[in-house]
Amino acid sequence: MLTKINHIGIAVQSLADAVPFYRDNLGMAFMGTEEVAEQKVTVAFLQIGESKIELLEPTADDSPVAKFIEKNGAGIHHIAYEVEDIEAAIAKLTADGARMIDSVPRNGAHGARIAFIHPKTSRGVLTELCQMGH
Ligand code: CMX
């Protein structure tokens, strides 16, 4: 069902502050930034091998990422796995008793369709399924 790790999401206070470290000091390939209005974040993607690091800066106080930083400080926010058929993946997980945050896919960065699994189901890790637009 899952094909690979698409990205790891890291919550940061400021992209302007965080991007130079990942791009210049760790040497990752910077792929640009994008506002994901639906999620109240601006994200920066950096490529590392076949996967990416997604830095997430909240754009509003009620953004899920703002709440996360308030509670935990900056740090790893979620892991995103790529799936070929997100509806089928949601249906299987739901049938298996998983607590889905999204029972219907929503829009993520780069035209991807995404759905989150609640961290209580995935043993403390907020987990994202993403189906890339082709
Ligand atoms: N990773 C692990 N655990 C997390 C978490 C995270 N990112 N965010 C919250 N939790 C934990 C909380 O600590 C809490 O644990 P305890 O009950 O042990 O204290 C539990 O989950 C429930 O938290 P909550 O306060 O009841 O719920 P929140 O209002 O904080 O919402 C969540 C949590 C995951 C449901 C919400 O953040 C959500 O819907 N996230 C999905 C959307 C999202 O994160 N979008 C941003 C990324 C967008 C993108 O990548 O494009």
UniProtKB/TrEMBL annotation:
One Pfam family it belongs to:
Glyoxalase_4
Sorted UniProt keywords: Isomerase, Metal-binding
Q: Key word Amino-acid biosynthesis present in the record?
A: no
- The organism's place on the tree of life at top rank: Bacteria
Q: Which InterPro entries match?
A: Glyas_Bleomycin-R_OHBP_Dase, Glyoxalase_1_CS, MeMalonyl-CoA_epimerase, MMCE/EMCE_epimerase, VOC_core
Q: Which Gene3D superfamilies match?
A: 2,3-Dihydroxybiphenyl 1,2-Dioxygenase, domain 1
Q: What is its EC number?
A: 5.1.99.1
Stretches assigned to the VOC domain? 4-132
Q: Which GO terms describe its molecular function?
A: methylmalonyl-CoA epimerase activity
Give the family from UniProt. Belongs to the methylmalonyl-CoA epimerase family.
This protein is called Methylmalonyl-CoA epimerase
State the organism named in the record. Answer: Geobacter benzoatilyticus
Lineage, top ranks: Bacteria, Pseudomonadati, Thermodesulfobacteriota, Desulfuromonadia, Geobacterales
What gene, per UniProt, encodes this protein? mce
